[in-house]
Write a structure and sequence with these properties.
single chain, alpha+beta, 6 strands
Length: about 170
């Protein structure tokens, strides 16, 4: 996904060829600013043509995919999980399945090319399915005082969907 290195979210697909020639793959939505592995999915025994024709366009429907190295993909996934764990956030429950697509965490050396958080602090940006209140309460308990940035939707009625505003709050 283009711009992944600028917005704190990376959609990563790791695909491997099975002995029968079909594809086994995992997708990983990583919030490397705060929450770590927000969503994951895996599937196996997908014919290569079907994978390229149907699956990849659905996964990258918001923009073209950007090829990165396998080592960088692992660094983003595992690094995001580790960063989020400091604040009590665990990977989405389907990671118990999709983790088997990945190499072991220590197989690829870390480059340090990815900054987790922003300026060393968790930076929470509310997603459409997040329980922002619960996340902010957890950050208040687990992050050092003054060590959190966040962006959440403003409360109150919205007469028009196109008239949505965001409230920027900085806890410093």
């Amino acid at each position: 996904m283009e711009g992944w290195d600028e917005n704190g979210l990376a959609v990563i697909v790791i695909a491997r060829r099975q002995p029968n020639g079909n594809i086994v793959f995992g997708t990983y939505l990583v919030d490397y600013y705060c929450l770590g592995l927000k969503n994951t999915y895996c599937n196996a025994d997908i014919p290569p043509g079907l994978f390229h024709r149907d699956y990849l366009p659905k996964i990258f429907h918001e923009g073209p995919a950007v090829e990165i190295s396998l080592a960088l993909a692992h660094e983003i996934i595992y690094g995001g999980i580790e960063f989020a764990a400091q604040f009590g956030f665990r990977p989405q429950s389907d990671f118990k399945y999709s983790r088997y697509i990945l190499d072991p965490p220590d197989l690829h050396p870390r480059t340090g090319a990815i900054e987790f958080g922003q300026d060393g602090k968790p930076f929470y940006i509310e997603g459409p399915y997040d329980n922002a209140d619960a996340i902010l309460r957890r950050l208040a308990r687990t992050a050092s005082k003054g060590k959190t940035h966040y962006v959440v939707e403003t409360a109150g009625p919205r007469p028009d969907e196109s008239d949505q505003e965001s409230s920027f709050r900085w806890d410093e």
